Amino acid sequence: MNFAFDLDTMWYMLVGLLFTGYAILDGFDLGVGALHLFTKTDRDRRVMLNAIGPVWDGNEIWLVTGGGALFAAFPEVYATVFSGFYMAFILLLVTLIFRAVAIEFRSKQPMLWWRRFWDVSFNAGSLLTALLIGVALGNIAHGIPLDAAHEFTGGFWSLLNPYAVLVGLTTVTLFAMHGAIYMVMKTEGELHDTMRRWARRAIGVFSVFYIATTVVTIIVLPHMTVNMRNHPWLFVVPVVNVLAIINIFRQLRRGRDFRAFLSSALSMAALMAIFGIGMFPNLVLSRPDVANSLTIFNSASSPKTLGIMLIIAAIGMPLVVAYTTVIYRVFRGKVRLDSHSY
Amino acid sequence: MDVGLLSRIQFGLTIGFHYIFPPLSIGLGLILVIMEGTYLRTKNSLYHEMTRFWVKIFGLIFALGAATGIVMEFQFGTNWATYSRFVGDVFGSALAAEGIFAFFLESGFLAILLFGWDRVSARMHFVATVMVALGAHFSAIWIVVANSWQQTPAGHHIVGMGETARAEIVDFWQMLLNPSTLDRVSHVFMGAWQAGAFFVLSVSAFYLLRKKHLDFARASMKIALIVALVGSLGQLATGHMSARTVAVTQPAKLAAFEGHYPASAPAGMYLFGWVDDEQGKTTGLQIPGFLSWLVYFDAAAPVTGLEAFPPNDRPPVNPVFQSYHLMVGIGMILIALALGGLFFWWRRRLFEMTWFLWIFVFSVLLPQIANQMGWFSAEVGRQPWIVYGLLRTAEGVSKSVTPGDVIASIVMFLLVYILLFILFIYHLNEKIQRGPEAPVAAEGHRT
Predict the structure, then answer these.
(1) Where does the pLDDT of residue B445 fall: very low under 50, low under 70, confident under 90, or very high at 90 and above?
(2) How far apart are CA A103 and CA A81, in angstroms?
(3) How far is B149 from chain A (nearest CA, A)?
(4) Distance in angstroms (rounded) separating the CA atoms of residues B319 and B308
(5) In a mutagenesis test of the B interface, which of A83, A108, A156 is the best target, namely the one with the most B β-carbons within 10 Å?
(6) How far is it, in rounded angstroms, from Cα B19 to Cα B374?
(7) How confident is the model at residue B444, as a pLDDT?
(8) What residues in B contact A310, CB-CB < 8 Å?
(9) Which residue from A78, A86, A312 is facing B88, i.e. has the nearest CB?
């Protein structure tokens, strides 16, 4: 790995940062959606929805902006991946729409069939979104067939290979864990106790998948660990990851719910970092023709554009972080249902 | 059908459906700022009641705009991969800037707008309203910048040849402020203000006719009428400026707007007509020399016609002609409606004029049709280019996508959008029927 702190590398990290922001933020509301159907009463389901009600839309913007940044910084990657994974992404878009609409309309009519339909839509939309994101990441890590013009030559079903599905399921359990911990923060009373139980269980399930994915990756995809073996100090990242997961457990037991959530967020950031370190300097790995891979060198925009974008990000992102923090502070605390609620 | 045509159909379907909502959010956003600002200044609870009601409507519109908007961000990559490779360096940055400067602002503060009534002070809530309205306007700026660059590319150079050719930025500000940006951004703003204003006029007129929520309806109507007038007169001015720019930068498009064939001759303006592209003839009712006069202030000045372009560089003329004329015609009607409304308001008869209020009830559709037609004529008028003069639409498509893929996605989007539209209309109607709530909540604010 030749690491230079140039514009290409900076944008590799910045795009990664945007998608990490997306994983941490939309991750919890997708997780809440994944757990939604396990709650039984109408009131509990409304609490679930309203816990994410004010913020989920803003969370999704991290995906939209991440997509835009990928388009601007690495157009080749944006073009190859989105056209190559055509049906998968169309499916993702449809599930995202359905999920958004389910949140908006679910509580607007009292009929049982109505609410049940949107509950299922919200749940299925959240699960499928998480699964598809994981499957996409799994394929990118595993490598996909690209020709010399960087066009994807595989088909839709080839995307559902065992490794990608494993990463997809791991993503679902990760988001479910993250969502459960978020709900622990946002609920009180009986539902709170239930969420605490679920969170503990979800950490267990996630840990199993996490270990499985790690072992399979080390054995089946040796290229994902080359950078780390060449630069042993990078092992700090997986160590932080494991400590963070253990810390979630510890903080939950002590009833420090917010710290548990921060730990969960930290572990997600570490996971994304492990993925980023493993891939670098590739953005999309081509297999079997490794020479056709998309790297930060052959897929980036011009230095001029990357520089302009850096200025835009330097002005815009601190503002985004500042007012996002303010908005989260406004809506901190336990969920209360009122006349504005979903 | 090939992937190119199918992808165009899909893009037209998804953008057309999406574009029902953003103009409403932009226009209604501005109106909300006026209403809530008036409330803060006067402390009159009527304006508080108005703000709360229209915020609820805004929330519904925004939800659909956001849900259908995600598709747009990724569709360039899914269906137009070659185009994306070609323009990414230029177009991508505008799109990313839209996310950073507009979407975050809009959807972040929307939370406070919708759910923050009891959590923040009245002043802070107003700040959130302003931010949401600003975010909506910013988003229009960036996306129209990106689209304007497709119409009138500037500030770039082409690197590479053939398959690997792509546009790269050389001058960011020239790219940003390309020849058509300012005209088109302001034209889009005015169209959005009209959409918002006539929407509020429609609902208010409905309440007046039903003799319900009278104070609420009158006050809403007054604000909306002023916005409608500004938007409609502004639309005339910005539309005129846009057409003059098109005459210079995209003469084939202007010629198609008016069905003007002779390579170089004075051109009139049709009130209505029909283009026979086979014969290269346009028939209809025409004001001779008027287009020449509008563009060059000289009725005898020659205007470049379609025959100056080889047939494979011309847009499909009749669809562009018809959509353009429908847009212009509606624009004129909207000016008349806004002026008429003000006249009757001045004569103190507006709120009792049943027939005129009925026109207002249905007028909500007019800016919607005009906005759709305007985009249709702008985009189809650019054909056969996806980036004018640089890249042909047929060359921009994804190579790894099959017609079957695109047909499947069109069917999926179509089904979902039909469902969304039914849901939208049903719930919009429900909210309107329920009407505003009595002004008790004014004390709900933390002060």
Answers:
(1) very low
(2) 29
(3) 15
(4) 20
(5) A83
(6) 11
(7) 43
(8) none
(9) A78
Inter-chain residue contact B100 with A149, CB threshold 8 Å: no
Alpha-carbon torsion A27, A29, A30, A32, what sign?
positive
Q: What is the pLDDT of residues B352-369, one digit of tens each?
A: 889 999 999 999 999 999
Cβ contact, residue pair B92, A71, below 8 Å:
yes
| CA torsion through residues A277, A281, A282, A283, sign | positive
If you count them, how many residues does chain B have? 447
Q: How far apart are CA A137 and CA A144, in angstroms?
A: 11
Mark residue A15 as left, alpha or beta (left: phi above 0; alpha: psi -120 to 50; beta: remaining).
alpha
pLDDT band, residue A3 (cuts 50/70/90): low
Per CB-CB distance under 8 Å, the chain B contacts of A68 are: 73, 92, 95-99
User: A67 is written with which tokens?
Assistant: 């997509």
Sign of the C-alpha dihedral computed for residues A316, A317, A321 and A324 taken in this order: positive
Check whether the bond before A145 is cis (ω within 30° of 0): no
* Distance of residue A324 Cα from the nearest chain B Cα, in angstroms: 6
CA of A335, closest CA in chain B: separation in Å?
A: 12
Q: Is the pLDDT of residue B396 over 70?
A: yes
Give Cα A28 to chain centroid, integer Å.
9
Position B225 scores a pLDDT of: 96
The pLDDT of residue B447 is above 60: no
Q: Would the pLDDT of B47 be above 90?
A: yes
Report A:143-162 residues touching B (Cβ under 8 A). Answer: 149, 151-153
First-last CA distance in chain B: 62
User: Strand, helix or coil at B358?
Assistant: helix
Cβ distance B84 to A309 less than 8 Å, yes or no, reads no
In this prediction, residue B438 carries a pLDDT of: 67
> Where do the structural domains in chain B lie, given as residue ranges?
1-152+404-437, 176-249+251-381
CA distance B248 to chain A (A): 28
Option in A75, A97, A312 nearest B100 (CB): A312
All residues at 6 or more sequence positions from A218 whose CB lies less than 8 Å from its CB, including other chains? A224, A225
Instruction: Assess B119–A contact: CB distance below 8 Å, yes or no.
Output: yes
Q: B439 falls in which pLDDT band (50, 70, 90)?
A: low
- Amino acid identity, position B143: I
- Asked if residue B92 has pLDDT above 90, the reply is no
User: Which is more confidently placed, A155 or B405?
Assistant: B405
Whether B160 shows a pLDDT value over 90: the answer reads: no
Does the beta carbon of B163 lie under 8 angstroms from any beta carbon of chain A?
yes
* B362 inside 8 A of chain A by CB: no
pLDDT score of B324 more than 90: yes
Chain B residues with CB-CB distance to A86 below 8 A: 78, 398, 400-401, 405, 409
**Alpha carbon distance A243, A71 (integer Å):** 35
Q: In this model, does residue B443 exceed pLDDT 50? A: no
Q: What is the pLDDT of residues B162-191, one digit of tens each?
A: 778 899 999 999 999 999 999 999 999 999
How many other C-beta atoms lie within 10 A of the C-beta of residue A38?
14
Reported as a single tens digit per residue, the pLDDT across B232-280 is 999 999 999 999 999 999 999 999 999 999 888 888 889 888 988 888 8
Q: Using CA atoms, how far apart are residues B436 and B447, in angstroms rounded to an integer?
A: 23
Cα B25-B185-B89 angle, rounded to 5 deg: 105
